Amino acid sequence: MPVTGHIALGFQLFNSLYLCVTAKAVFAHFMVQNSYSYTKDDWTNDIKAAQAIGIDGFALNTAVDSYEETKLVDAFSAADENSFKLFLSFDMTYSWQADDMVKLVKDHASSTSYYKWNGKHLVSTFGGDTEPNEFWETFKKDLKNANIPISLAPAFINYREPEDASHMFSNFTAIDGFFNWWSWPADEKEDLDTDTDLAYQKAISAANRSGPYIMSVSPWQFKELGDGQDWVEQCDTLWKYRWHQAVVDVKPDIVEIVTWNDYGESHYISEINPKVNLGDLAPLYVDGFNHTGWATMAKWYITWFKSGAKSGPTITKDRVIFWYRAHPKDITCDQGEKPRNSELPEDAVFAVSMLESDANITLTVGESTATFHAAKGIANGSVPFSKQDGHKPVVKIVRHGEVVKKGTGEMAINTTKCGYYNFNPFVGVLE
Ligand SMILES: *[C@@H]1O[C@H](CO)[C@@H](O)[C@H](O)[C@H]1NC(C)=O
Ligand SMILES: *[C@@H]1O[C@H](CO)[C@@H](O)[C@H](O)[C@H]1NC(C)=O
Ligand SMILES: *[C@@H]1O[C@H](CO)[C@@H](O)[C@H](O)[C@H]1NC(C)=O
Ligand SMILES: *[C@@H]1O[C@H](CO)[C@@H](O)[C@H](O)[C@H]1NC(C)=O
Ligand SMILES: *[C@@H]1O[C@H](CO)[C@@H](O)[C@H](O)[C@H]1NC(C)=O
Ligand SMILES: *[C@@H]1O[C@H](CO)[C@@H](O)[C@H](O)[C@H]1NC(C)=O
User: Fold this and answer.
1) Beta carbon of 337 within 6 Å of any ligand 5 atom
2) Residue 41 contacts by C-beta under 8 Å, 6 or more apart in sequence?
3) pTM over the 0.85 mark
4) Residue nearest to ligand 5 atom 13, measured at CA
5) DSSP letters along 164-220, please?
6) Are 198 and 165 spatial neighbours (Cβ–Cβ below 8 Å)?
7) Sign of torsion over alpha carbons 278, 279, 285, 288
8) Which of 74, 83, 106, 122 has the fewest Cβ atoms within 10 angstroms?
9) How many whole angstroms from 352 Cα to the centroid of ligand 3?
């Protein structure tokens, strides 16, 4: 019956379009401010490293500096060549003129790597809720008049409380989706919950908007830059439970890893590119504090997120990712101010095991030892710091009494002396 055939075909077409629109994507927030000394090869290296763990693209956090414009040309060119995606994320803590924002989107809109949501160019921000709705309306209209309809999913950072979600959409009629920046506990010991995520995710559809819900997932938050910019949040086990929240509880349209390369806030997951000039202070707590083990962990969660499966992918290689600060929290350092919330993190080595089959994981620092039973798949545990000075954590995977793998963290825990306040952890990998 030809009629039925047509209906079936139409339905199939509808289904595949629908699947195309809702494909889950993972982006990483990229600080273009840190690309000052970048060549195109640096962009290509970052793109390949990100692709190797399943990241689809970068959200380009762009400030107003003119050098960034020339760096973005390299970024889009490198992305085009590697089938990587990019979208602009305006850093609204800088004083952007709407015309300059329109120009920058126009400059790159025809690039094959510019990411589209629902057929429209995706544009995001950090902040921007201090601008009135008219600002965003004009910005969108100018682009639409240039034949570039956009989907605007900003991180309006003053919107964090779940109960403000519907207000935000009625106040800002111009926005299509939302990016929840808040991926750390708010100055408290308690783990972060998903109330904000679920409220803003729901508010998008309740307000009949068509933009994505972008959920941020971050491993850490610490900065020590003086002038009141000294703080840490309680992130000891955040990287594992936040990913779990994203994959299992929230299932956002897009996960945005915060960040790829914001070294100064200690939430980078990329290798530290030694070319990047971080000023005088950030290197004191960034240099030597490798975070790439967190990227290895993310790869597993990214695969799971995209699969939509009930449980995570099968693990075919035993690994333990572990992280720890280089000093106990009560130590007095020669320079800097004790960061706000310094009492919140535990003085401990935190470990996440990713195993082919069950094992016991033994963690040792000096005279302090703990063992946790780790089931096949992913599990976590920790061991308190030793009071003794200068020990490096030792991690063992033990099966039926036999040590299968053993490794030592490169960074010693210094309990007696500290040059500059540092709550940025070193991340090690046993594999
Ligand atoms: C705009 O937001 C404020 C603060 O959240 C709220 O009090 C006000 O009711 C909102 N306006 C509208 C029209 O929703
Ligand atoms: C959204 O659309 C539905 C169905 O068209 C309508 O009933 C509802 O009032 C709309 N909500 C808003 C906030 O516009
Ligand atoms: C594992 O992490 C969770 C938070 O995700 C924490 O509540 C729990 O105590 C940790 N388990 C161990 C054994 O450390
Ligand atoms: C602790 O740090 C101080 C100052 O940098 C250094 O002199 C000392 O050797 C360190 N202790 C250990 C055991 O590494
Ligand atoms: C882990 O340790 C417990 C207690 O010693 C032991 O009963 C169990 O067999 C061990 N599991 C494995 C997989 O080695
Ligand atoms: C960072 O750690 C990873 C995993 O342990 C390692 O492969 C890489 O070489 C380290 N990078 C540096 C610069 O030491």
Assistant:
1) no
2) none
3) yes
4) 359
5) GHHHHHHH-TT---EEE---S-SSSSSPP-SHHHHHHHHHHHHTT--SPEEEEE-S-
6) no
7) positive
8) 83
9) 10
- For the CA atoms of the chain, what is the radius of gyration? 23
Would you mind telling me the total number of residues written for the chain in this entry? 431
240 close to ligand 3 (CB < 6 Angstrom)? yes
Paired with 429 in beta bridges are 321
How do the pLDDT tens digits run along the chain, 431 residues long? Answer: 233 333 333 344 444 444 444 579 999 999 999 999 999 999 999 999 999 999 999 999 999 888 899 999 999 999 999 999 999 999 999 999 999 999 999 999 999 999 999 999 999 999 999 999 999 999 999 999 999 999 999 999 999 999 999 999 999 999 999 999 999 999 999 999 999 999 999 999 999 999 999 999 999 999 999 999 999 999 999 999 999 999 999 999 999 999 999 999 999 999 999 999 999 999 999 999 999 999 999 999 999 999 999 999 999 999 999 999 999 999 999 999 999 999 999 999 999 999 999 999 999 999 999 999 999 999 999 999 999 999 999 999 999 999 999 999 999 999 999 999 999 999 999 99
Each residue's pLDDT tens digit, 353-387: 999 999 999 999 999 999 999 999 999 999 999 99
- Phi/psi region, residue 415 (left: phi>0; alpha: psi -120 to 50; beta: rest), is alpha
Q: Which residue from 264, 268, 319, 275 is spatially nearest to 291, judged by alpha carbons?
A: 268
Q: What DSSP character marks residue 335? A: B
**Domains of the chain with CATH codes:** 16-307 (3.20.20.80), 319-430 (2.60.40)
Quick one: 286 exposed, middle or buried, by C-beta within 10 A (0-12, 13-18, 19+)? buried
Q: Return the residue matching tokens 């109330």.
A: 195
φ and ψ at residue 249, rounded to 5 degrees = -95, -45
How far is the centre of ligand 6, averaged over its atoms, from the C-alpha of 411 (Å)? 12
Q: Which two tokens stand for residue 112?
A: 């094959």
- Of 289, 265, 261, 258, nearest in space to 275 by CA: 261
* Lookup: tokens for 301: 């969660």
Query: What's the per-residue H, E or C state across 101-143?
Result: HHHHHHHHHCCCCECEECCEEEEEEECCCCCCHHHHHHHHHHH
Our mutation pick for probing the ligand 1 site, out of 166, 171, 173, counting the most ligand atoms within 8 A of Cβ, is 171
- CA-nearest of 60, 43, 37, 49 to 126 is 60
Q: Would you give the DSSP letter of residue 385? A: P
